UniProtKB/TrEMBL annotation:
SUPFAM superfamilies: Nucleotidyltransferase. Coiled coil: none annotated. It comes from Bradyrhizobium brasilense. InterPro entries: GrpB/CoaE, NT_sf. This is GrpB family protein. It holds the Pfam family GrpB.
Amino acid sequence: MEKYGAGPIVVLDYDPNWPAMFETERARIEHALGSLALAIEHVGSTAVEGLPSKPIIDLMVGVPGLAEARECCIEPIEALGYHYIPEYAAWLPGELFFRKGPPGPWTHHLHLMEPSNPRWETLLVFRDYLRAHAEVSHAYAEIKQALAASSREDIAAYRNGKTRFVEETTAKARAWRANLSGR
């Protein structure tokens, strides 16, 4: 069992402070990385107003190249209090993953990748669809809350339990975006 931080998985009601927490961290990362940070996005459930979430701010940082990022970005990000987790490369290929906070519960996750990584678009389209469709966001909240209760400390069970919903919703989100852009 892959344990979650320092205790059971908790999904909290939406906190209106989450966007400000993201903005604070975005500014710190932008300052630390300079021109290496092509874009910094707030993703994950804390990026969707009204959506209950694990209280972890997910940041996605776009960089020109992953090899250069390995050489130039790890140290400045770690200086901000993040811990680089290299073993996550097997689970999240094409990105560098960092956590911030005491050794669980974590307060921030940072996903550093090239914007051409397919996961970049996936995370953005899923976020944007949830922001635009309150009924889908509500259904996702119910799934997350039930999984948090049943998974307890098993983060893999929690994550895997969301997979079908996330994949189906992402497919709908891509169709929705294509329709919006007239493609």
